[in-house]
Amino acid sequence: RWQKSTKILHISNTGLVGKIPYWFWTTFSDATYLDISLNHLSGNLPLNLEFMSVIKLLMQSNLLTGLIPKLSRTTEILDISRNSLNGFVPNFQAPQLRAAALFSNSITGTIPKTICRMQKLRVLDLSNNLLSKELPDCGIKELKQGNPSSNNSSKVRSLRYFSLRITSFLLSNNSFSSGFPLFLRQCPRLVFLDLTQNKFTGELPGWISEAMPGLVMLRLRSNKFSGHIPVEIMGLQDVRILDLSNNNFSGAIPKCLEKLKALTHTSTSNNMSFDNPFEEGYRSSMSMSSSLSNDSFLVVIKGQLLEYRENTLYLMSIDLSCNSLIGEIPEDLTSLVGLINLNLSSNLLSGNIPYKIGNLRSLESLDLSKNKLAGEIPEGLSDLTYLSCLNLSYNNLSGRIPSGHQLDILETNDPASMYIGNPGLCGLPVSR
Ligand SMILES: *[C@@H]1O[C@H](CO)[C@@H](O)[C@H](O)[C@H]1NC(C)=O
Ligand SMILES: *[C@@H]1O[C@H](CO)[C@@H](O)[C@H](O)[C@H]1NC(C)=O
Ligand SMILES: *[C@@H]1O[C@H](CO)[C@@H](O)[C@H](O)[C@H]1NC(C)=O
Ligand SMILES: *[C@@H]1O[C@H](CO)[C@@H](O)[C@H](O)[C@H]1NC(C)=O
Ligand SMILES: *[C@@H]1O[C@H](CO)[C@@H](O)[C@H](O)[C@H]1NC(C)=O
Ligand SMILES: *[C@@H]1O[C@H](CO)[C@@H](O)[C@H](O)[C@H]1NC(C)=O
Ligand SMILES: *[C@@H]1O[C@H](CO)[C@@H](O)[C@H](O)[C@H]1NC(C)=O
Ligand SMILES: *[C@@H]1O[C@H](CO)[C@@H](O)[C@H](O)[C@H]1NC(C)=O
Ligand SMILES: *[C@@H]1O[C@H](CO)[C@@H](O)[C@H](O)[C@H]1NC(C)=O
């Protein structure tokens, strides 16, 4: 209590139990680094921490409750993930914040409008909370308010001038319910976007690739998006993970898939020259705590739910499963030679399996089940030497199942179930 000149306090993982004493915050008000993470500390945080000098404030994995306080002007890094906090204070403020890990709490309400003024914010992880309704628009008015150089009547300034610097925006497993957030128009530097498992509705806007040209990961899985997949989505040159599964998209898969440039190279030959918050170098340059990257993504591949962490980016994947997509599988899909996972299962796709499917040499998992695909299975499929999971069941495929190479050695308990529901198929492993 009397160590008032402490600059650095590091008492992480020390078995501390009970409430944080009321004097803690004033005693350490001059400290720049406070790490009390991984204990059993409980109780509410003070509503206002403006008087502190802390730059890095780490409190993750405790039992803290109450509201997320108004932060000091000095705070750049905040980690209070894995606690039981339940909202933001009404006047939430954090002008210097660069990275905030707030995932796995019980935060309700919505994201405060003040986010529009956080010009330094790069990483915001709000996954696994109870947030609802819509995100703030951050229209030009909201953005201007916080920008000191914006006192200028000249109208020549473009909206982009005021844009945010967010590179990672992770909102999975909440209850957001608006249309595709307009907020994202102000995030031209976005690299990772995860809206998985919310209640977002409506169509994807055509501005998606223009507004966020550097997206590497676009995860919209398990929402209520509908309408056509806009052709503009193919303008996402850097995208490596495109997951639109479990929505209600209809219409055809847009053509010109070959414009997804990053997927036309294999993952090892790809340049990873963007900000990767899951990478060591990025963390040290941002002087972030390693726990910020302790978040992970659950990915469905090879029929299993797998947890991906640092290696997420090496998973080059397109998952459009469980929608209402019609028409043929575009032939130019076969130019995406970097693809490791392709899942088009449970749609209404018709026509043949692209003849050149054997070009997708990196494929490890291919699921085309539960569609209306017809014709023969292309011989080239057996050239996919990395393939370990294949499912072509419940289509209208016919003819002899190709044999030789990889197709004979796929490890599965029940090989016939890869082809089940295609009465016209014959040859091993089906009995006909
Ligand atoms: C979703 O978030 C809640 C907390 O709000 C958590 O209890 C639950 O485990 C999360 N679900 C998944 C699939 O991560
Ligand atoms: C904008 O600038 C003018 C003149 O420089 C000044 O009088 C006015 O108070 C400023 N407004 C704000 C909101 O700072
Ligand atoms: C206002 O904008 C004009 C044109 O962009 C610029 O020349 C001028 O310096 C700006 N004034 C302020 C106070 O920022
Ligand atoms: C999916 O979209 C179609 C129109 O394309 C609509 O008729 C149907 O009701 C939607 N299904 C759900 C579950 O929203
Ligand atoms: C990687 O980046 C370098 C320089 O930035 C460039 O010359 C090279 O063509 C890139 N390689 C690929 C596969 O994009
Ligand atoms: C990282 O995550 C693992 C498993 O989810 C957890 O056991 C561990 O405590 C976390 N580490 C930190 C520093 O939060
Ligand atoms: C394809 O997606 C469906 C639905 O999302 C899932 O059930 C299935 O396991 C996936 N297939 C593979 C091979 O991962
Ligand atoms: C299945 O394909 C055959 C031709 O191979 C075609 O005659 C038949 O109409 C198709 N059945 C369905 C239900 O699409
Ligand atoms: C293929 O998908 C069908 C339908 O979802 C399922 O019954 C079957 O077990 C799957 N087979 C393999 C090998 O994954």
Automatic annotation (TrEMBL):
Which terms in the GO cellular component ontology are assigned? plasma membrane
The protein's matches in Pfam families, at most eight in alphabetical order, are given as: LRR_1, LRR_8
From the UniProt annotation, give the residues forming the signal peptide. Answer: none
Q: Which keywords does this Swiss-Prot/TrEMBL entry list? A: Cell membrane, Glycoprotein, Leucine-rich repeat, Membrane, Repeat, Signal, Transmembrane, Transmembrane helix
PANTHER family tied to this protein: LEUCINE-RICH REPEAT-CONTAINING N-TERMINAL PLANT-TYPE DOMAIN-CONTAINING PROTEIN (PTHR48063:SF105), LRR RECEPTOR-LIKE KINASE (PTHR48063)
Main location class: membrane
Highest taxon in the source lineage: Eukaryota
Q: Where is this protein localized, as stated in its record? A: Cell membrane
Matching SUPFAM superfamilies, A to Z?
Answer: L domain-like
Q: What InterPro entries does this protein map onto?
A: Leu-rich_rpt, Leu-rich_rpt_typical-subtyp, LRR_dom_sf, RLP23-like
Q: How does it sit in the membrane?
A: Single-pass type I membrane protein
Sequence similarity: Belongs to the RLP family.
Chain segments annotated as coiled-coil in the UniProt record: none
Which protein is depicted?
Answer: Leucine-rich repeat-containing N-terminal plant-type domain-containing protein
**Does this UniProt record's set of keywords contain Transcription regulation?**
no
